[in-house]
Amino acid sequence: MIWREKRWLLIVLGVFFVANLLFFVTYRVRFQQRVDDLESRREAVVAELTTARAERASAEKDLQTLNQIVSTIDTVYNEWWGTPQERLVPLLNEMRELARRSELQPPSTSYNQVETGRDRTNAASLGISFSVAGSYEQVRRLINMLEYSDEFVIIEEIQLASGSDGSNLMLNIRLKTLFRSEDGPARSS
Question: Among 169, 4, 15, which residue's Cα sits nearest to residue 102?
Fold first, then answer.
């Protein structure tokens, strides 16, 4: 038989076969372990990427909201909260027009301007006070128009009393608005 004649050759081939078998099993197990490690690293990186994309989308949304807020603040600061030279006459005209449209005519209007100082805002405050007499519907219409006016005004105080004849109401109203100081520079984006 051939295995007796070439015993050493068969032993050497058997040793090589066993060595190859051990190497293959070891390599296959190590290879699978490396594949599993790479797969877990890929999953971790994909999770990080998903989180980073969500954070970026949130940050972009926050930036867009911030830019919109800055734009709105600039509009308020430059247009609605302008200097007295820019806004006083249009404001007073608007107040007179609102009174006329509500069919109430104030006999007189008083104003008082207060400088609020050199704080962060460089603001001046103007108070507008007037009295009107009219029906409930007229008074209500005037207050509603003041609230929805395009001018930047704050209704600071309202005093309501019954008129002498009982059918009319007496309304004392005090409005307030703010102006940017003359030396305060206009904001820009």
Answer: 169
Give dist(CA 80, CA 49) in Å, integer: 45
Domain boundaries, the chain: 2-77, 82-180
Which pair of structure tokens corresponds to residue 32?
Answer: 């699978």
End-to-end CA distance of the chain: 98
| Interatomic CA distance for residues 138 and 135, integer angstroms | 5
β-sheet bridge partners, residue 180: 123
CA distances from 112 to 35, 83, 96, 125 (A): 81, 16, 17, 8
Distance of alpha carbon 87 from alpha carbon 149, whole angstroms:
14
Backbone angles phi, psi at 133, to 5 degrees: -130, 135
* pLDDT single digits (tens) 2-60: 666 777 887 888 899 999 888 887 877 788 888 889 999 999 999 999 999 999 999 99
Helices and strands (H and E) in the chain: how many: 4, 4
What's at 43, amino acid-wise? Answer: E
Strand arrangement of the beta sheet that strand 109-115 belongs to: 109-115, 123-134, 169-180, 154-162
- Hey, what CATH topology would domain 82-180 get? Alpha-Beta Plaits (3.30.70)
Please tell me the pTM assigned to this model.
0.53
